[in-house]
Description:
Blueprint: H1 11-16, H2 24-38, H3 53-62, E1 67-70, H4 77-83, E2 91-95, H5 110-119, E3 125-129, E4 134-138, H6 145-148, E5 150-152, H7 154-158, E6 169-171, H8 173-176, E7 180-185, H9 192-204, E8 206-209, E9 212-215, E10 220-226, H10 239-244, E11 247-250, H11 257-267, E12 276-277, H12 281-296, H13 308-329, E13 333-334, H14 344-349, H15 362-381, H16 384-392, E14 399-403, H17 408-417, H18 419-429, H19 437-453, E15 457-462, E16 465-470
Parallel strand pairs: 1-10, 1-11, 4-7, 7-10, 12-13
Antiparallel strand pairs: 2-3, 5-6, 8-9, 14-16, 15-16
Amino acid sequence: MADSRPSISTLAELRAAGWQSRPIKQEIREHTLEQIRRGATMFPGVQGYDDTVIPQLQHALLAKHDMVLLGERGQAKTRIIRSLTSLLDPWMPIVAGSEINDDPCHPVSRHALDLISEKGEETPIAWVHHSDRYGEKLATPDTSIADLIGEVDPIKVAEGRYLSDELTLHYGMVPRTNRGIFAINELPDLAERIQVGLLNVLEERDVQIRGYKVRLPLDVMLVASANPEDYTNRGRMITPLKDRFGAQIRTHYPYELDTEAAVVTQEAFIPDAGLTVRIPDFMSNVIVRFTHLARSSGQVNQRSGVSVRMSVSNMETLAAAATARALRLGEDVAIPRVCDLDAIFPSSAGKIEIESLDEGRDTEILDLLLNAAIVEEFQARVDGPTMHSVAESFDDDTVVSTGNDIPAERYAAIAAENEALASAAAGVAGDAGAMDPEVMASAIEFVLEGMHLTRRLNKDAVGGRASFRIRY
């Protein structure tokens, strides 16, 4: 079918066009095969999964399996699930007026059966876009069978219909996603009795509502997400429902710094506020290393995970701090510096859970992780001879002051006075450091902080100001 809405409007026209119905999983399988043949990107915007998660997803789709994605928060589970709609036909025909997307060739609802019986080949046809063939529910303890499956509509009963009449039903989210993809986020949070009801409608194809047994031969692909800690018998998961899923796919955080940095660049919203805002690689890497160190820290609760969202939020906060500083100093370009990094503590605090026996140590632990991130990036960019050269350039009378109230031009003067420091900063910043005073200012602060944290310079800090001097 073309991307534009088809003009076919009756069952007779649909048959004449040669349209053939096929199950949702077969439809997805055919599109998956085509994308694999073409070498197309199946899940755009999802990075770091090319050799791990995506092959498993392809296998599950080709095998026509329902699946559950297991992973901690911020591992692109929901993005992957929502991307599955790209594997559907652009448009799908349904019996006009159907609440559950009845297949014109295989109707299941009373409305569709009665309409086709009455109209025959002149049964009106409507078209549903692939984006509307997706249903999603966040599992919460108060989720009911009525939400997922349906309930008797008292208004329809009051109009004179009998309770045994199927037309009295108001369908829930699962039937309304018939011939589509239905996703349940945080599946273990569903009450066990709701899990049983869901199993029944998906496996046995019937459900009892108010004592009335409703036959629902639905055609639905079920996809769920869950935290690995909860997806166990101890985590309120019933075994029969776990058995319903053909594939259990484990997601993960980015293994490589470059991958997470690419995700941050893709996701972070950095408004310009009338300024040019740029994040040098060495500063963005500090943000990413900070997150990676938190994921391996024994003082951070790893069961809840450390989401990529922390990297994204911290990058946005760092850009905001640089923007505010540039506006105060009257500069046209906002480049984050080390003095701006304190701003990321509030945006980090809500993203991780600190495990400490002492109250009030959260900021101290975050500060240690940030310092470790700066040291890692500094040692990756500055070699030993360069560090020695910078240390040797400081004598008893050499004091270099930095801070959020010092304009970029002042750093240019510092570079002119200290050739070794200027050379190290240029190496950190790359070619842009020799031309852009704001980038050079950021690189100088980075080098000085790295020299202090690796115990080559002393640092005296008061408020937003810092002074670096020789270390004995």
